[in-house]
Structure formats: C-alpha cells, structure tokens
Design brief:
Lysozyme-like, single chain, alpha/beta, 4 helices, 180 residues, 27% strand
Length: 180
C-alpha cells in the first residue's frame, strides 16, 4: 500500500525488515497488497533488488515512521525456535545465530551473502540520493518515539516496534560497518 508523501515528510531514514518467508519479490508484493502493506524494495535470496514502490510515495511498512522512511525487506524467515545450527530453505541452509533484541535472547536466521551485499549497495545508494545521515542507533531496543521521529540514518524494524525482531542486529551492524 502507498500514498503520496505529504509536503512536510522528508525522507530521513531507511528501515530494514525481513519478509518472514522465502518467497520471491512478486510473492512478497502479493502478500503485502492483501494485507494493505508495502515495502519500497525487496531483496531476494539471490541478491536481486526489486523496487515495488517508488521512493516519492510513503509505504505502509513501519507504523508511525512511514512518512519519513524507505522500507527495505530482505527475504528470509527470520527467527527459529528451538535453536538449531542450520535452517534449510529452498536456496540452501541459512546459518542461525544467537543474539539479544529488546533485552531477550533470540535465535535468528542469517541472510545469504548475496542479500547482504545487495543491501549494502542499496543502502549506500539511498543514503547518498536522499541525504540520509550515515549512522545507526547504538541500541538494540526500541527508540523513544520522539527520538525515532527526528533520527536520520538506518534502523531495524525492531528499533520502532517492541514486538518486532527484524532484521536482527547482525545485519544492522554489518550495514554500518560496510557503509558507514
């Protein structure tokens, strides 16, 4: 779902997500439309980047931050209970790693290297194109709503919503190390 950005809504952040499944961009788009949601970009398992919604439109991907952000989703299941070392997908196994989000221990599926490389390039391009600051939050918890509103940089969905874990702190740190 999309709407034209309002005049006072300047793009100042990129919000990274996972899709919660292993489908391609077309399947992700169909699911999102059914739910009244949307991402600007989807990064498939192969690293292919598909733009679903143009940047000048706000997409419904992260609640209160929709008007000020670009949503980028990497295809991936996300979390695993109980923890196992490998996670089979149609494209092969995903590594599972332990981390802490919102102060609790979770086991998350990592993304494929091609996805991470595509995410780094896309974020670098978007930061340059839209004048977004080259930074990420120092916390792995939800930002205060006032702080989130004025933040310029790259966020994970978990920085905005305490019920979310996506895309996991590892990807945010790797994007930061690679881009910033």
């Amino acid at each position: 779902m999309k709407r034209a950005r309002k005049p006072w809504e300047e793009i100042r952040k990129i919000v990274l997500h996972w899709t919660g499944g292993e489908g391609n961009a077309a399947r992700v788009e169909r699911t999102l439309r059914r739910r009244g949601l949307g991402y600007h970009y989807v990064i498939e398992n192969t690293g292919r980047v598909v733009q679903i919604i143009q940047d000048e439109f706000a997409a419904y991907h992260c609640g209160r931050e929709n008007g000020w952000s670009i949503g980028v989703a990497l295809v991936g299941y996300g979390y695993r209970w109980p923890a196992s070392r490998r996670w089979r997908t149609p494209r092969g196994p995903r590594d599972v790693y332990e981390t802490c989000v919102h102060g609790r221990r979770v086991y998350l599926a990592d993304f494929f290297q091609a996805q991470k490389e595509a995410a780094f390039r896309l974020v670098e391009d978007l930061v340059a194109e839209h004048g977004i600051e080259r930074r990420v939050p120092v916390t792995d918890c939800v930002l205060d709503p006032t702080e989130a509103r004025v933040f310029s940089g790259v966020l994970g969905h978990y920085h905005i919503n305490a019920r979310k874990l996506d895309p996991g702190p590892r990807l945010i740190r790797e994007v930061a190390a690679e881009v910033f």
